[in-house]
Design brief:
There is one protein chain. Helices cover 20% and strands 33% of the residues. The protein is α+β, with helices and mostly antiparallel strands and 361 residues long. Among the domains are: 137 residues, Probable tRNA modification gtpase trme, domain 1 (Gyrase A, domain 2); 83 residues, Aminomethyltransferase beta-barrel domains (Elongation Factor Tu (Ef-tu), domain 3, Beta Barrel). α2 packs across α7. The radius of gyration is 20 Å and the shape is globular. The protein starts with 6 loop residues before the first helix and ends in a 10-residue tail after the last strand.
Amino acid sequence: MRRTPLYDEHVALGARIVPFAGFEMPVQYAGILQEHDAVRHRAGLFDLSHMAQFELRGDGVGAWADALTVNVVSTMKPGGARYNLFCNDSGGTHDDVIFYRRADRWLLVCNASNADKMWDLLSGARAEDVVLDDRRAASALIALQGPRSVEVLQALVDGDVAALRYYSAADMTVCGRPALVARTGYTGEDGFELFTAAEDAVAVWRAVLDAGRPAGLEPAGLGARDVLRLEAGMPLYGHELAEDVTPLQAGLAWAVKFEKPRFTGKAALERQQTEGRYRRNAGLVMTGRAVARQGYDVIHKGKVVGDVRSGSVGPSVGRNIATALLEPEVTKPGTRLSIRIRDAEHEAEVAELPFYKRGRR
């Protein structure tokens, strides 16, 4: 098992450490619900240094990446960030990623569980005018999320973080250390992701924690992060996305730019879109106290019509929630279904995604 540069910080803070994507990672500190509450109402600090960071350089990066991904990369301007997906020839998803456009290079952030797969894919498909650099060992990533994140971070940086637009990024210094500061995140709240050198991670982590404590900031683990992203309707690879699940099925059709002349998986996605008969991601709200978990069957009128992809309590919703990949005829909000949990069926209702939107309490 690998450790991030912040591992000792987590241990010192009393975190419960669990294996995740090949790393020893903090799943919680004070508790998932307390950390969830901090992010929704104040601020939370996450170590995301297990995420894979790859640098791309060269005049051909934009056109090359356009041919490999469903969204457009070549139109990005310096300071931009863009969600994207790499697909296989069948339209299934290799990974969902974010591209960050910098002045002289690009940063590509991939899921930790797919890091080796994505490096092999990029290396195998590399064009002659593209240079790849694996930054996994040299980089760290810290996420500050929550409604008070602007005031917490502003005191530590040499730029105006409030002026950053959502899905944009800028090079700044954080407590004197160089960093790429991006207004992105995975919680449904406002916030920032701080890309630093590995050797600067501890200093930045401690500085943000110290600055944020008066505002109610707390360190937060992977457990709270998963509940937060599920409430916000954000997909998690291995759940709502997989090699056999397409962006269309996952509800990410907005990211698929069919007007591009070519990209891997385009023909398969066009066929799927034309035929229209495919299972698709939908939200579920449990009517009782049962919690749905990944892999449970979803039943409608005695017939299995899909399976649960993610499930959890939903503190911001006041109900237990889930996502499921369902037959299209049962995805209308309000449709009554049931979830088979062991030998019993528990009632659920299809709900609109996301379950939670910023500003809704």
